[in-house]
Structure formats: C-alpha cells, structure tokens
Amino acid sequence: MAVPVPAMSAAPAKTNAAAPAALSSLVAAVNIPYEQFTLKNGLRVIVHTDRKAPVVAVSVWYHVGSRFEPAGKTGFAHLFEHLMFYGSENADGPFFGRLEDIGATDWNGTTWFDRTNYFETVPTGALDRALFLEADRMGHLLGAVTQAKLDTQRGVVQNEKRMGENQPYGLVEYAQLAAMLPVGHPYRHSTIGSMADLNAASLADVQNWFKTHYGPNNAVLVLAGDIDVATAKAKVEKWFGAIPSGPVPKDVDATVPTLPRDAEKLMHDNVAATRLYRNWIVPGVNSADLPQLDLAMAVFGGLKSSRLDNILVRGEKVAVGVSASIQPFEKLSIAEITVDVKPGQDAAAVGRRLDQLLADYLAKGPTADEVQRAATRQLSGTIGGLEKVGGFSGKAVTLAEGAVYSGDPGKYKKDLVLYAAATPQSVGAAARKWLGRPVFRLTVAPGERSAEDNALAGNATHRPAFFRDPKKPAPSAGTPPPTKVPEPAIEPVKDLEFPEVEHATLKNGIPILFARRATVPVVRVSVAFDAGNAADDKAKLGTAGLVTALLDEGTRSRNSIQIAEEQERLGASISAGNGMDTTNVGLYALKPNLDASLELLADVIRNPAFDPKEVERLRGQVLTRIAAEKTEPMPIAQRLLPPLLYGQAHPYGIPFTGSGTESGVKAVTRADLAAFHGKWLRPDNATIFVTGDTTLAEILPLLEKRFGDWKSPQGERGSKLFRMDRMMRPARIILVDKPQSPQSLILAGLLTGKRGTDNPLTLLTANEVLGGSSTSRLIMDLRETKGWAYSAGTSMPGVKETIPLLVYAPVQTDKTGDSIIAARKDIAEFLTSKGTTAAERNQTINSQILSLPGSFETSSDLLGAMMRNWLLGRPDDFYEKLPGIYRAMTPVDLDKAAREAIDPDRLIWVVVGDAKLVRPQLDAVGLPVETGTLAD
User: Fold this and answer.
1) Which residues are CB-contacts of 231 (< 8 A; sequence separation ≥ 6)?
2) d(C-alpha 660, C-alpha 542), whole Å
3) 650 DSSP 8-state letter
C-alpha cells in the first residue's frame, strides 16, 4: 500500500537566501592531514598538526575488546581498562591524579567489542609527561597490579554494571545479543561482562590478558594538535622505543549471521512507555554497504523529518518518539529501529503499522531529496566534530579508528565520499538487501521485570563501557606517590589567551557579542533571553518547556515538517531550551549556508504558530517524558529535592529536570504559551552571541536583516522575584521506593547562601577538593577505597542566584546507609579537622590553570564561556585573569570559603532505591526518615 503523507507536508518555504552548498564542497571542507611512522617494536604512530591552541591530543588504541574474550572471561577487557588507571611500576597510584596535575582535559578510557582506548588532551608543555605515563602503563604495568587493586576495581565495575541495569530498558542489550547472535559468537556477550566471570577473575588471569593483548605491536598512538612529525618521532622513540613487542596479535573473526526466521520477545520493565524494537545484524565498518544503510536508516527514522516522525509522531500521533540508526563495529554492526508508543495506544497495532511502513519503504525506497538531506546532515555533523583535536569525536579519534579497524587513518574521507555520492537507488538497494532479512522484534512494556529477564544480567543499551561517566565531573585522586624513574618536568605552559570579544548593537537595541574561531567552516549563534525555568508559570509548571519545544514545530509560514527539512537541507541545527536562568535558541550553521540558516532561526524565534494540533502532540510528549522521569533514579531525585531546598515560592523551587508537573502541563493553554512568548522571548529581553568562522563585519548585516526590525510587543516584559521564605528545612532522609532496583541513588543538597553573581571562585575551587574532581575526597572514599560506587561527588550548579551544594552517589543497595554515613563523615571532616592539604591545593590549582588552554578549543566552548560571563556579570577577560586569581589562593582560603558557605548539618538527603532493602539501613544514619512520593 502507498504510504500516506500527512497533510501538513508541503514544498519548502521560499527564502531569499542562496541555495545550500553542494555535498561535494562539504566533503572538500573535511580534511585531516597526517603523517605516520612505525617503531621497531611495531607501535604505529599517526601525527596531525593543528596549531589553533597550545594543546596536544594523545590517543592510544589497543586492538582488543570484549569480542576477544574467551568463554568464562567476559568483562576482562573492561576490567583491565579500569586497572590501567591505577598505577604502573614507575608511576604508581591513580593515573587520573597525574592527569589532573598536568591540566588534562577530555580524558577517559573506554572499552567496546573491538577496541580499548585511552585518551587525554594536554597542554603542549605537558606532552612529555603524558607520553611517559602512557608508555609506563603500556610497558611497565604488571608490577603495580595487586590483588587489592583487582578486588577494588572488580567492585567498581560491578557497581557500574548495576548502574546501567538500574535504568529503564536497562536489560535490553543482553536480550538483543542473545536473540540475534548464536552461542559462541564473539559479539554475543556484553562488554560489561557477567557478575560470575568478574568474580572469578584472578590476578594470573589479568596478567595473562595484559601480556597477550597490550603490546606496542597491537596498538596505535595518535598525536593531534600543537606538534609536528619530527618532534613526535623524537618524543615517541624516547618513551616507547624500548618497550618490547608482544605476541603477534591474533584476530577473532566474526560472521554476520542472519536469523532463520523472524523472532519476537516481550519484556517488562519499570518504563513509562512501551518501546518497540526492530533489529538486524548487518555488516561491519569496512563494508561499502554500511554508509548506504546508515542513510537508509536516517531517512526512515533518524532525521527529524523522517518517515516515522512524519507519519507515526506528527501525522497519526500514535508514537511520542522514534529512532533508526546503525551501531557500527569492526566485523558487524547492529541496525535498530525504535518506536515509543504513545500511552493509551494499542502497542500491537502500532507494531503492525511500523512493519507495514517498513515494507512499503523497502519496496519503493527513498526520494532524492531525502537522501540528500540525510547525507548533508551526516557531513555537517562530521565537520562540526572535527573542530576538536581530542575527546570522543575529534580528529585523533577519527584517525585512530580508521587505522585500527581499517588499516587506513584516512578511512573517514572515503566514507564521506560514499555518503555524498549516494543515490536513491544505492540506498534503497542496501536497505532491501539487509533489512529485508528476518527481523528481531522486541517489545518492552510497562510492568515488573521477570526473573528470566533479570537473569540476563545485562547493562545499559549499546554504548562503550567508560572508565568514568563522561557526563559527570572528572574524579579527583589524592597526591600521587613518587615515581621510581623521575617523571619528565612540565615545560612552561603559557596562560590562556582568550579570543577578543567584540560588541555591537542592532538598530532595535539587541546587544551582539562576537568571538572568532575559524578552525572549521561553521558558525554558532545563540539568542539568549533572561527567562529560563525560573520564569516558569508556578500555577502551570511546564509552560516554559512547552514553549521552547514548540518553537521549531511551526511558524506562520512554515509547518514543522518544512522546518525540519529545511534544517537538513542546509546542514543546520536549531535547538531551543531552558537553563535555570535563561532561555536559549541556538543555531549551528555551515558557513556557506549561514544566511539561509539565520533566516530560518529568526522565523522560529519571532513567529511561532503554537498550532493547536502541535500543542496537543507536544503536550503528550512532555507528559510521557515526565512519566519517564518518574521511572529513572536521578530524575526522580531531581524532581523531589529542589522544592525541599528552596521552598515552593522561590523561582528555583521547581523540578530541576525542567519538564514541569503533570497538572501544570495538562492545564496550560495555547493562550498561555503565546503570553509566555510575548512576555519573555522578545527583543528587549534578548542578547545574541556568535562564534565561529566569520567576522563581526560579515555577521552584523545578516543579523540586522533578520532581527533588526523586530519590535517588542506592547505588554510588560517579564521579571522574576527571588525571595526565600522563612520555613525551616531540617536535615532528613526522604526515601523513594523503586522496587527491584539493583542500586540506590543518593542525592543530597543544601543552599550555600552564595549567589552566582557573587563569583564565589574560592568556594567553587574548594568544592573541587571535596567532590568536584576525579581525585576528590568523596570519590576516592566511596569508589576507590570502598568500591561501593561507580561515581560519586559534589557539584555547585552555575546559577545566577542562590547556589546549592549537591551531593550525589549511585551505590550498591546493601551499602546505602553506610554510604550516607561515610559521605557525611567525609564532608564534616573536610569542614573541620581535615581541611584542604597543601598537596590538594596545589593539584587543584595546577589542574585549573593548566586545563584552561584546552577548555576553549572550539567555537562551542567559546560560546558557552561568553554566555556564562554575561549571565554572571563578569568581564570579557574573566578567563584570562583566572590564573592569577588561582595562584593567590591558599589552603586556608579554600577552607574559609567552604566553612562559611556549607553547613553539613543542613543537608537534606533523597534516596531512590528498593525500600524493603534500604529502609532497615537508614536508622543507623541518625536522621529522621520520611517516605517520598512523586504524585505530580
């Protein structure tokens, strides 16, 4: 049958801007020149020079992951990745403490099926130190691996595993792998491994794993940034040249299996919406079919204007979210389509409709416009990612991945050429070839997990296992012990030179702030309004979030599909959202398509339609999101804690998730949305920030054309009243029951009495010592000493008004009470008898100063810094002055700031876990215990 296209679809709205840039010109804009050489011991080295900032990305990839693990040894690759962070023979103690000492940014270690990698971006003057550390753990590790370290990290990994399983849909990955891959297939087990195998790992097992897989001849080292090949050769030979080769690497091959027939499975979980999955095993990264298949998936369910979005979400309104993507691996990949069924709809009927739409798509294929939009989005995303030298998506990773998986650091370029040359015929043929095979249909419905599903003991859906959660602040480590072979000195590192910030004003008074960063042909714009979640309507919480969600869902001249399609054609991305204090509408644009992208941005901001049909559709999505938040440990705590800290009347006394309340979202009307827009999103409440590959002289006329004639509405501009009530807020524990939780989430908070506009830099620095870094007191105790948690720490959100101190720790269930007791003790001792040591002060200050050059590498980094300065009333040169401010701080200063602002006896603790197991532990804490609920 023919696929009905929703009536709202129409031809692209006309604009007076130039046509989008050709795909071939976008491919030409992506280039990572490199040179490579190989040491006598087999270490492959790739060097890319990029002088935009005085930093070098160091990325070491070992060609070993979980598919190399034999039966009974699952989880070894990831467990070993953890052990690699705990010292080597010449540099014992936590590796991350030494990274902090040298100002490393973007550091982590990850393990997946095919590889294990370690990466950090360091100031140029600290490169020798970073290479010494990487070489020592490659060549001199085993003498420092002890039974005590193995036992501790085994516990940390098991808590990481529990944390994944504690999420909604947290058992899905094991179900998928078990259903789609035959017994004995190397990709069949999860990277996190099984509890039984982790418990059985012996010191001898671990040592043999290292000797077999971690030789230089099984590794690739990439250096990208402020370095040239001659310097790299000398340094790499010095530090790595004497490491002997390991055994000749043996590949573990893997077939791409096809199911004999369609397979189906039903699981139950504590989820808000039924999720339908369609999965296939498809070829690995070296198949020419994979880029074509990636585009096919994008057209069907990956683009914002995808078939599934347009039909199931916008048109028939039976789904609240869809996706379609490829998860690529070396020998095979996993194709996945998901549909989140709108609550109240018949999931089985939606599943049949999904299969019908897929069959029709495979029969007829995509259109030329769909393929071009999907390819433009892919190329645009690649260009943006390559602004960084390191991290998860930067140039070092791109070169390393090509070298390890394909023997070709330039593989990325060949892939982009394939994307740009794709046609409806090539994409349709690949889709029919691979998605026309038998499918695995998995349904996860609301309900209690079964014993059978729990026995799968899986981890969160497809993602690598990280050494540290990349969304959390880096951990902190006490002072590293002395090395046997002296660590190389850190050469002088110049203080940060922040780019010049230029100012201008549009003819209607909107201020413009601009900073140039021309590394890639990309421009970022953010139109910021003094609004945010703090401006939300207390009577109808969720109004602010619904307004921003609806901005790109229709204007007076464009419907939501046209807006989505236009962004895709331009390779642009418009995003709107609320922080606590500001509402931001952002634009990511390719330089050649800047004018047309700005025209679209202006239309979205100035002329939202708030179409009643779109309001109802988005209302349903937000209500489903709120229901989903009530199934996830951290959002549960983030909804419950803020009103307890600030009181109901304070602008910050609302769920930190920003989604509002069910009653508020149900009550808001179209008139309320339009009134919020008129009151808050207006030119006399706006500031425009721009960074990227342009100049102020070039961008100003374009902004004038799109925003200069925007007039404020007649009504009064919005204002926020920040006032604390006089209610007592005694310390206590609020326990929220989440049955079957394999882990407890602890979130505690208090108000510091300091405002963001006070610029309490000394207090924020003291927090680094307490819980803000990877070597902080809290994480060193709960994770590294006790092994009860995968992550733990404290944070002080960068709000404009009263700053809270938040304490968080996801911990194993049987240690919930003990973890609260330990955290309270750590905090109390820090504020009294065990204040900041000279070593902690030095490490923290060194880390803060030396990490500055790597913290503003991209246009996105710059944009965020400019906006923080504006929000908090700081001067443009604030970051340039930071090193001098930091150097003047003493341990006494840090202690004084912390003791003035933090009263640990006022902490209110929220615990989300299995109450029948947790409640008996809490009496020992010595605080009143209440039962918490999330009625709204």
Assistant:
1) none
2) 4
3) S
- β-pairing, 802-812 vs 87-88, is unpaired
Q: pTM of the entire structure?
A: 0.89
CA dist list (Å): 91 to 94, 206, 394, 482, 578: 9, 19, 28, 7, 44
- C-alpha of 616 from chain center: 29
**Within 410-463, where are the H helices?**
411-421, 424-435, 451-455
DSSP notation for 694-761? S-HHHHHHHHHHHHTT----SSPPP--------------EEEEE-TT-SEEEEEEEEEEEEEGGG--H
Over residues 562-601, the pLDDT tens digits come to 999 999 999 999 999 999 999 999 999 999 999 999 999 9
Q: Where does the pLDDT of residue 480 fall: very low under 50, low under 70, confident under 90, or very high at 90 and above?
A: very low
Strand pairing partners for 527?
Answer: 585, 688
What is the average per-residue pLDDT within 636-641?
96
**Residue 936 CB: number of other CB atoms within 10 A?**
13
Q: How confident is the model at residue 464 (pLDDT cuts 50, 70, 90)?
A: low
| Per-residue model confidence as pLDDT tens digits over 194-248 | 778 878 888 888 888 889 999 999 999 999 999 999 999 999 999 999 999 999 9
What is the Cα–Cα distance from 544 to 548, expressed in whole angstroms? 7
SS3 for 252?
A: coil
Q: Which residue has the tokens 């620095």?
A: 765
| Closest by Cα among 238, 193, 275, 222 to 37 | 222
Q: Which of 927, 922, 910 has the alpha carbon at shortest distance from 738?
A: 910
Evaluate if residue 403 carries a pLDDT over 70: yes
Q: Are 778 and 808 in contact (CB under 8 A)?
A: no
679: amino acid identity, one letter: K
Residue 441's contacts (CB-CB under 8 Å, 6 or more residues apart) are 262, 263, 264, 265, 276, 277, 278, 351
- What dihedral angle (degrees, nearest 10) is formed by the CA atoms of 145, 150, 156, 160? 90
Torsion on CA atoms 895, 898, 900, 903, rounded to nearest 10: -120
Torsion sign, CA atoms 235, 239, 244, 246: negative
Distance of CA 201 to the CA centre of its chain: 31
Q: Report the sign of the C-alpha dihedral through residues 109, 629, 803, 767, in that order.
A: negative
3-class SS of residue 60: strand
pLDDT at 184 over 70: yes
Give 493: exposed, middle or buried? Use CB within 10 Å, 0-12, 13-18, 19+: buried
pLDDT of residue 487: 83
State how beta strands 44-49 and 55-62 pair. Answer: unpaired
Burial 844-873 (b: 16+ CB within 10 A, else e): bbbbbbbbbbbbbbbbbbbbbbbbebbbbe
